Amino acid sequence: MNTVDADDILVDDLPAPRHSRRLAVVTETYPPEVNGVAMSMARVVDGLNRRNHDVQLIRPRQSAKLTPPSSGIPAVDEVLTKGLPVPLYPNLRMGVPSKRALVKLWSLKRPDVVHIATEGPLGWSALQAAQHLALPVTSDYRTNFHAYGKHYRLGLLSKPIMGYLRKFHNRCDATMVPTEAMRVLLAERGFERLTVVGRGVDTQRFDPARRNDKLRARWSAGPDDLVLGYVGRLAPEKNLGVVLAAYEAVKAEQPRARLVLVGDGPMRAELAARAPEAHFAGPRSGDDLAAHYAGLDLFLFASLTETFGNVTTEAMASGCAVVAFDSAAAGELIHSGQNGWLAGPGRESDFVAAARMAALDGAARRGVAEAARETTRRLDWGDITTRFEAVLEGAIGRTAQPFETAA
C-alpha cells in the first residue's frame, strides 16, 4: 500500500464562487442621455451583467428626440415608467411617483437588492416600495443639489433639499459616494452608512492617440497652436466665467490660442457673445467625444458643484493637462504641478494664473499630460464594479431574512 505524507498534499485556497444576484437598478437618467450619472451608471450595469447578475433597469421613458445609441450600452431587462421634463434640462425626464407599480413588480419577481441612483420622484417611490417589501436598498449620492441654489435662486430651499436628501439616504442600507472628501462632508451633515466607491474611466476610448489634426483644423487651429477646452453643460453651475477669464489671459499672450467648448445649455448665447471667436462643438459622445478631448492641449474645469466630475478623468486619460479647482475628482486625483494644476476652491485669480503658466510652459504642460494619462490607468471600471458589488453584497448580508438568489 502506498502512503502519502500530509505534507505532500497541496491544498488550493480557492475563493468562494460568486453568487449570481437579481438586482433592481433605479435611475432617472441613462444613455442616450449624456451626463455623468447616465454614463457611469451604464458602465456599472455593464460590469454587473458581465459578472452574470440578472439586472432589471427601471427608468423613465425618454424623450423621442433622443437618438438611441448604436452600440456600447448594455442590453438589460428594462422597465419604463412615465416621465416628465426636468426644468432647465429639456432633454431629460424625471420619473413620477410609482410605489404601487413597483410593489407589484417586485412582489412578482423579487430582487435580492434594490439600488437607487437618483433621488427624484421615481427614486423615492423605489425606496418606499423596497421598504414595504423588506428589501435591502443601496443608493448613490451623485449630484450636489444643495450647491446649485446660488445659481438657480434656490437659496431658501437649500436647507429643505439637504434635509430631504439626508432623510432619503439614511433610510438606505448603504450610500455610495465618489470621493473621501464627499464622504467627510456628508458625514458632518448627518448622513449615515457612507462608503466610497469612485468612478472609472475607459482609457482605451479616451486616448491621446485619437488626436486628429483635421479636426483641429476645423477649429482654426494648426498642429502647433495651443487649444484650450471645456466639456460639459453650458450652464451657470459650471462656473464658466472663470474658464473665459483664463482663456482671455492666455490669449493676451498667445493670440493664436483657441477655445473649444463641447456641450450645450442655457449659457451658450451668453458665452458666444463674450467669446465670439470660440468654437462651439455642441454635444458629442462616444469616439467623437474622445477625439475632441484628444485634440485639446489644456483642459479648463472650474466647476465647484460636482460630486465627482467624470470629464476630469476623461480629459486626463486623453492626455490633456488639466487646470481645476481642488474639488471632487480633481482634488482626489491631481497633485498640483505633477499631473495637473489645482487652485484653491473659489480662488479664481489662482485658477487663471495656473492656466496662464501652463499655456506658456509647453514642456511642463506635456510632462503633466503624460503623468495625468498614467494616473488614469489605475481607474479601471472592473475594479469599480468589484467595489460596487461588495456594497450590494454587504446590504444583502445585513437583511434579517435572506432570500433565495437568482439561479
From TrEMBL:
Its EC number is 2.4.-.-. InterPro entries: Glyco_trans_4-like_N (IPR028098), Glycosyltransferase_grp1 (IPR050194). GO terms for molecular function: glycosyltransferase activity. Residues 34-205 form the Glycosyltransferase subfamily 4-like N-terminal domain. Keywords: Glycosyltransferase, Transferase. It holds the Pfam family Glyco_trans_1_4. It comes from the Bacteria. This is Glycosyltransferase family 4 protein. It comes from Pelomonas margarita.
